[in-house]
Structure formats: C-alpha cells, structure tokens
Design brief:
Number of helices: 7
Helix content: 25-40%
Structural class: alpha/beta
Distance between the termini: 28 Å
C-alpha cells in the first residue's frame, strides 16, 4: 500500500504577502510544492491530498494542481472556520484558523491509508521523504505507530523575524517523549531565544531537535483528532487566538501510552519562506542543490 502525502496549503501567508504556495523559486519556475511532490513521487507516495480554503481555491487549482494531473493522483479538501463538530457554533469574533490539528482532521473522509503531513511552504529535502515513506510502508491501517522527521533548530531559523517551532525530546529508542510548540523563536546576539506569553526571553540550544510539521500517521490518528478537537473547543472555543496543533494531540497520545511517535533524524536541509526576505535565500539553496545534481534544472520536462 503506497502512502498518501497530505499538504497543508490553506494559509495565505499574511506575513509574506500573497499566495506564497505558488511563488516560482526553481530555475524552471518550480515552486516549493513542486519539489515536495517530486521527492514524494520518487520516495514511493501514491497520491497527494491538498488542504485549501475557498479564498484560494480557484488560483490554487489552476496554478498548482493541474500541473500534477498526469504525474500523481491529486485531490483537495476544504478547511474553513465554520467546519466544526455537531453541536459547536463558530464565535462571531473568530478570524484565526483553528490550527494544524483541525486542518488534518478535514481529510478524515478522504484518506484511508498511512499518510504523511507537510506544510506547503516548507522545503523538506529528498532524504526526509525517503525516511518517512519507508516508515509508513511498514505500517498497517490499524497501527498506532506514528513518526516525525526531526531537524536541528539552528538549521531552521529565519534571519528576518520570529518563527514557530515544535521543540522535541526523545528517549534512547528515538521515540518522542514531548514536543512543545513555541511561537516566537529568533537568533539574537546572546544566541537562540524564544519569547513566552509575557514576552520574557528564554534560551534554546543550537542542536535542539525540532518538528517542522513533517509527520507520519495511519488513519487511526483521525479518531484521536476528532476527540481531541472537541476537547480543545470545550476549553478554548472563545479564545480568539487559540489553536489546536498536531503536537498537542501527539503529546496527549504519548502521555496516555496510546501511540508511539518515532523521531526520524534527517540529513536533508530544511528551508522555508516565512517572510519576503526569505525568498532569495530559498532560491539560492535550490540553485545549489541543482548544481550538486540533487535535482534536474527542469523537474517536469
């Protein structure tokens, strides 16, 4: 059974300014999604499912999805604020998306096989896809063995502003023990720091393993998301900035002993576009990889 790749592409990139998922970065006009799908195909994924929303649907289907129609089966599902469980009503003041956990939950009816989750605007690298594909091919649909690709914090920062990262701890068997989502991380003169809710700085280590939202799950994860999202809404539905993150549910399952999450260290380089200024660096990184022969100049000749 070939795994499926679930791509979270509903965000408009407010800090970046525009639909960054369709920005051309490669030598032949490739987007970051092009490289992700190229790597996924070569790693043995069988199809791609996009999470999008109505505001970007027309452009996304025209510019992104049609490019891949003859390369790998593709479909999409919608993430909207009002897609809540029965009995819950969207607060009038809510403008912020419900988070990555809610986004993945939107694909519950679409995906029936082991699957990986990535962000549309992050470049994860060939080795990362091969590692997680190998793991997922060993799991059956009833398994509660999940996985996460781990990157070094020092290799995941932006020079141009704060970033969000999931700081991970694992045991001797490389099983995840905790993941803590931190939303304001930046390299300062004194080293890498994050700001807490009171804007107080705390140090982080260069070699800390972080989650870049590259996860591997079986369909069993959807059942946990359904319960976890309801619990989240019961506690936080009226908190305008609250979000239900994938690591939140991963932590819950680990703490209860319901599931394991294998940390898969990768030799791949990660980079992304959080701010406009990150674009040139991403282009330079891709140009270097093409020059090294990792990718052809034209992914889809």
């Amino acid at each position: 059974m070939k795994p499926t790749l679930l791509i979270l592409a509903a965000g408009m990139g407010s800090r970046y300014g525009g639909l960054k998922q369709t920005d051309k970065l490669g030598p032949s006009g490739e987007t970051i999604i092009d490289y992700s799908i190229y790597d996924a195909i070569h790693a043995g994924f069988g199809r791609v499912v996009f999470i999008i929303r109505e505001a970007i649907r027309e452009e996304f289907v025209e510019v992104v999805m049609r490019k891949f129609e003859d390369k790998i089966p593709c479909s999409y599902v919608m993430q909207e604020l009002d897609k809540l469980p029965e009995g819950y009503e969207l607060p009038a003041e809510r403008k912020k998306p419900w988070g990555t956990g809610h986004a993945v939950l939107m694909a519950a009816q679409e995906i029936k096989e082991p699957f990986a989750v990535i962000n549309a605007d992050d470049f994860y690298g060939r080795d990362s896809f091969e590692q997680i594909a190998r793991f997922l091919k060993q799991q059956d649909t009833e398994s509660h063995n999940f996985a996460m690709v781990g990157y070094r914090l020092k290799n995941t920062l932006s020079e141009f502003g704060y970033v969000s990262r999931g700081i991970c701890e694992s045991n001797d068997e490389m099983l995840l023990t905790t993941v803590t989502e931190l939303t304001k991380i930046k390299r300062e003169e004194k080293g890498i720091q994050y700001l807490d809710e009171q804007e107080k700085p705390h140090p982080l280590k260069e070699e800390d393993i972080v989650s870049m939202n590259f996860w591997g799950f079986t369909p069993k994860f959807f059942q946990h998301l359904k319960t976890g999202f309801k619990n989240f809404l019961d506690e936080s539905i009226n908190k305008e900035k609250s979000e239900y993150y994938i690591p939140t549910e991963a932590n819950n399952l680990i703490n209860k002993g319901t599931a394991t999450v294998k940390v898969l260290p990768t030799s791949s380089s990660w980079f992304g576009i959080t701010f406009k200024e990150d674009k040139q660096l991403a282009m330079d990184n891709i140009k270097k990889l093409v020059g090294e022969g990792v990718y052809p100049e034209n992914l889809w000749p």
